[in-house]
């Protein structure tokens, strides 16, 4: 079970606040923590914890944050041998504000990620070709994400695009996507629709499926997910938890678990349910890396390993 992952790494500077500050307001009473993050790295670590053999491509600075990242990937058994290390920019940093409800707001300074280009992705071709599935997230420059998807299509590797943060995609990219995983706010952005587009989730799902010709998993938070595969729409029930602590890594946990289950040959519906269980467990634990589950964690909660 091999997964190739092209995405981001960054350091998350997290502050838990009693509420979100108003414009111009200085709010006291927060609790601060710093730790590794970035959607690509989170997904790589989560997939490795769930039993996959993971190869990861990103770009980091030649700085303490970048060296800490290399140590983390080694400890988590993630192959990071092709990661780009640059002296031209610092490792990505994200500022995260988390409310008591667990909802979060994030601002990002990409830094070294801007050095990740199509040429760097080409050096990762062998890993993409050897993988059962390629996962691409969009905290990296669009040309790099597009190059990864194109190479996946050329090599016959199943591709999964996690379009976060979302932006409209060039027309040539759509046919290279086998599985697309937007949430409700990302779906209209991908389609170039205005905020007041007026479409239902089912209509957005149909538009996305028609554009890519592949499968779509539309995640809907507490409402679960909607799947489109081969013209059939299937709902995935939400997995309830007693208390939401931190939603920060839930989407990455979901994406990784979905990719792992698909790489194992599970159906899209079964894979989405497994992913929902993984995402639900993640929101019950503070922090991102500590919250990413192992296979044993999910077996304990569901009575089965998948």
Mean pLDDT across all amino acids: 92
- Rg, Cα atoms, Å: 18 Å
Q: For the largest beta sheet, what order do the strands appear in spatially?
A: 6-4-1-10-11-12-13-14-15
Output the CATH class name.
Answer: Alpha Beta
The CATH architecture category equals: 3-Layer(aba) Sandwich
Q: Overview of this structure, please?
A:
- Helix 1 packs across helix 8 and helix 8 (250-263) runs antiparallel to helix 9.
- The chain has one domain (2-19, 31-302): UDP-N-acetylmuramoyl-L-alanine:D-glutamate ligase (3-Layer(aba) Sandwich).
- With 306 residues, it is an alpha/beta fold.
- It is 33% helix and 24% strand.
- The protein contains ten helices and 15 strands.
- It is globular and about 50 Å long.
- It has helices at residues 39-49, 64-75, 118-122, 125-130, 142-155, 186-190, 201-212, 250-263, 268-282, 295-302, and strands at 2-6, 10-16, 31-37, 53-57, 59-61, 78-79, 84-86, 92-98, 104-109, 133-137, 158-162, 179-180, 215-219, 225-229, 232-236.
- The strands form three sheets. It has a nine-stranded mixed sheet, sandwiched between helices. Strands 3-2-8-9 form a four-stranded mixed sheet.
- Strand 13 and strand 14 (225-229) form a beta hairpin.
Summarize the structure.
This protein has one domain (2-19, 31-302): 3-Layer(aba) Sandwich (UDP-N-acetylmuramoyl-L-alanine:D-glutamate ligase), CATH 3.40.1190.20.
Brief descriptors of the model:
10 helices; UDP-N-acetylmuramoyl-L-alanine:D-glutamate ligase; disordered C terminus
């Amino acid at each position: 079970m091999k997964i190739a992952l092209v995405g981001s790494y960054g350091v998350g500077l997290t502050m838990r606040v009693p509420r979100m500050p108003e414009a111009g307001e200085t709010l006291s009473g927060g609790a601060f923590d710093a730790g590794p993050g970035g959607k690509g790295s989170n997904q790589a670590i989560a997939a490795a914890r769930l039993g996959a053999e993971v190869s990861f491509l990103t770009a980091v600075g030649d700085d303490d944050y970048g060296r800490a990242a290399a140590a983390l990937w080694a400890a988590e058994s993630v192959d990071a041998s092709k990661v780009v290390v640059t002296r031209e920019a610092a490792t990505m940093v994200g500022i995260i504000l988390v409310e008591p409800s667990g909802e979060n707001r994030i601002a990002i300074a990409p830094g070294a990620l801007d050095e990740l280009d199509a040429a760097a992705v080409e050096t990762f071709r062998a890993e993409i070709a050897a993988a059962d599935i390629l996962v691409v997230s969009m905290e990296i420059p669009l040309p790099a994400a597009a190059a990864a998807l194109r190479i996946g299509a050329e090599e016959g590797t199943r591709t999964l695009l996690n379009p976060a943060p979302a932006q409209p995609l060039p027309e040539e990219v759509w046919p290279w996507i086998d599985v697309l995983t937007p949430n409700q706010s990302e779906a209209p952005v991908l389609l170039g629709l205005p905020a007041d587009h007026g479409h239902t989730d089912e209509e957005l799902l149909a538009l996305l499926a028609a554009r890519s010709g592949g499968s779509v998993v539309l995640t809907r938070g507490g409402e679960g997910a909607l799947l489109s595969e081969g013209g059939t729409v299937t709902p995935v029930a939400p997995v309830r938890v007693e208390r939401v602590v931190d939603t920060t890594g839930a989407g990455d946990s979901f994406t990784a678990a979905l990719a792992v289950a698909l790489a194992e040959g599970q159906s899209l519906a079964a894979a989405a349910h497994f992913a929902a269980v993984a995402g639900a467990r993640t929101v019950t634990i503070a922090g991102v890396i500590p919250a990413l589950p192992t296979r044993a964690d999910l077996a304990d909660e569901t009575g089965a390993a998948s």
